[in-house]
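note to self — DONT lose this again. spent like an hour looking for the file last time. sequence + predicted structure for the chain T wanted, 296 res
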Amino acid sequence: MSDTTASMRRKIAGAGDLESVVRTMKAVAASSIGQYENSVSALADYYRAVELGLGACFRERGPAPLVPERKGQTDAGAIGAVVFGSDQGLVGQFNEVVSDYAVKTLAALSGKAEVWAVGERVHERLADAGLAPIGLFPVPNSVKAITQLVGQIQIESEQHRAKGEYVRLYVFHNRPQSAALYEPVSQRLLPLDAQWEQGLAKVPWPAKSLPEIMCSGTATLGALIREYLFISLFRACAESLASENASRLAAMQRAEKNIDELLEDLNRTFHRLRQSGIDEELFDVISGFEALTTKG
């Protein structure tokens, strides 16, 4: 009986240690969600400034297209795509959701897809689905690391685009929703949409004095477009990381609940075994006492 209760003690201690780990991971995930969501919110003012600058350039440039397009160019040709996933586990169906969405969306578009994966796990999922990525980037582990990642993506994707290897560029990622939920979304970054340009050109300047485009208008416009692409990729990465940690937080909450239920069962079993052992010892004592009394 002592071996059985000792075994139960070890199980209870192990479950308690596991619960401490889960609570730590839960706290880390909750903290990470906050910093990534704050980074997305912090982009709003900067994005607004870039939009105003683009609008000023489009108004000055007039209705002429930024880059002359051939008929049907935006609906034909190879496709470049960046898919944000995760490098770590305990995220539920996070990678499956975004990879399946990317595969389905790209299959509905005409043209061969060239994909860059952010995260080893989503890389594996895309390869298994027959959409082998041509590049793999590690998932950043902090807000500061996002900037370096986005810079690498911009450099490599621009090199391929300059060689004419793709015409359109899409980004796929999970976007956080309420109650630790998320949904897969996509955005076409290139080529720039004419309707989008016209919309920005109509945005009124917030001050009475209209802006003046310094230096070369083309150079200024090119710099602002690069900033627009940077912001779009940065936001996609930050939202993906927020969704990843939200998924991990939900997984840790489920694990914590399961461990609590397990501990309750183990403690109940332990007390039952311990009480059974005490009852047996008392029975032996009473039996011995009665035996001695009878002999006397």
